[in-house]
Automatic annotation (TrEMBL):
CDD domains (alphabetical): TM_PBP2 (cd06261)
Subcellular location: Cell membrane
Organism: Rhizobium lusitanum
Biological process (GO), any one: transmembrane transport
Organism placement in taxonomy: Bacteria, Pseudomonadati, Pseudomonadota, Alphaproteobacteria, Hyphomicrobiales
Protein name, per record: Lactose/L-arabinose transport system permease protein
Keywords of the record: Cell membrane, Membrane, Transmembrane, Transmembrane helix, Transport
Transmembrane segments: 7-28, 68-90, 102-123, 143-164, 204-224, 257-281
Membrane topology: Multi-pass membrane protein
Amino acid sequence: MRLQNRSAYAFLAPYLLVFTAFWVWPIIDSFLISFQNTRVNPWTFNLPLNWGRLFGDPAFYNALQNTLIILIVQVPVMITLATVMAVLLNSPLLKARGIFRFAFFAPVVVGEVAYAAVFRLMFNVDFGIINKLLGGVGISPVSWFADSHAAMVLIIIAVTWRWAGYNAIIILSGLQSIPEDVYEAATLDRVNRFQQFIHITLPLLKPIILFCVVLSVIGTMQLFTEPYLITNRGGPGGGTETLGLLLYRQAFQSTNFGYASAIAYTMAALAVVISLLNLWVGREAK
């Protein structure tokens, strides 16, 4: 038995070494850096410098507010849309379901730069197709990149478009695991389709939906690509700057790695707290 254990650990050793070197140690080192003044050479230990600045920095509160707005608005909309899409994709009346499933999942595999460029063209104030469609119904053109509220709506639309299909496929897998006998028994009891969805499908899908919510919360707390590429680095005037973008600016533009590390750990802590809160609410709702 001991020989077998040694053999197992010998095979695991390369992975454990790589895991420690490139995952565990960077996390520990980043936490230590958050307590150092990295604007001097050599770096010096200064406990309150970065964390004290964090709680008094208007840029941090602006980024936190923008991130939470996206989280509160976008995640429920996306999960609701993904659930509806999953139900439709699971319908036996839908022909060529494989093609539709691929089409809804495809945005995830599209290159981020390519899709950001397409969104910038679509929402262009002068020749974008979105403003032309709005003009067709009598709505004046919207300055998507010059107005902070419109830019925030644009970010929410873009993130929803990119990830709704991904979550729909996950929820679809949960739908397909529900036994058909449950629906047959409900049909015999003269329960209509809408009532079946409310009282059978949604309760049985709660663990899957909760899983998607937690993933979406973590992803939103790290949101970087859309505000950086679509609204030109969090513009206008920081109106769409997120915590991920603020971290990037501090680390790689201001080379203030200590402050960036403090922001990173704050993001991680918020993601954990919100995710645990969602899990607690989901458990209490059972």
